[in-house]
Amino acid sequence: QKEVEQNSGPLSVPEGAIASLNCTYSDRGSQSFFWYRQYSGKSPELIMFIYSNGDKEDGRFTAQLNKASQYVSLLIRDSQPSDSATYLCAVFPINAGGTSYGKLTFGQGTILTVHP
Amino acid sequence: GAGVSQSPRYKVAKRGQDVALRCDPISGHVSLFWYQQALGQGPEFLTYFQNEAQLDKSGLPSDRFFAERPEGSVSTLKIQRTQQEDSAVYLCASSRIAGGPGTGELFFGEGSRLTVL
What we know:
- The complex is a heterodimer.
- By secondary structure, chain A is mostly beta strands.
- In chain A, 0% of the residues lie in helices and 52% in strands.
- Chain A is built from no helices and eleven strands.
- Chain A has strands spanning 4-6, 11-14, 19-25, 32-38, 45-50, 54-58, 61-66, 71-76, 85-92, 105-106, 110-115.
- Chain A starts with a strand and ends with a strand.
- In chain B, strands 2, 4, 5, 6, 9, 10 and 11 form a seven-stranded mixed beta sheet that branches.
- The N and C termini of chain B lie far apart (33 Å).
- Classes of the chains: A mainly beta, B mainly beta.
- The A-B interface holds A 4, 6, 8, 31-32, 34, 42-46, 49, 88, 90, 92, 99-109 and B 31, 33, 35, 40-45, 47-48, 50, 55-56, 58-59, 91, 99-103, 105-106, 108-111.
């Protein structure tokens, strides 16, 4: 089982619709959860992070975290063609030593296409 | 600089050749990370520096891979005797936070695309 799993897609939604991107993780001790967006041929850029159970909203984006189910999602409201990209879920775990360095673990990404 | 700068952007190497990839992080950023991204996959962690100290190199796939950051700013990832399976995009990221990205934001460079023939 991969540490962070995402449906690779592609996920296709019409302009103006809600896009729902999902991610599950295996390490129950994971602390922090991130969504990065990566346009084709470009580097990842951070969209949102969430640490606590529940919802966190930022503009058209809402991150949802359910630690009991080991599930994190990203909702994009009023999707635009410019949202078309690969969305990477990333998880920051706790290692046995109690400190972690840089081991942000990424899923394989979900390709989102928003069509006019 | 304004962002994380990586060079070269593209590198074609013959199998067995040594390559060096450079990363110039955002000025003042303490933490520096190297990731490897294969086509269609998410980035895979390679190694982490806090200033000049390499605190985690557990992701380096073999002893052919070596990274350094001697003065706590610019970093170089060196791959010796390249193999075809080394073909990937090598991403460098920096963070102003010391001690890991759990509470910080990673700023990625544009990457160095390595193709080994």
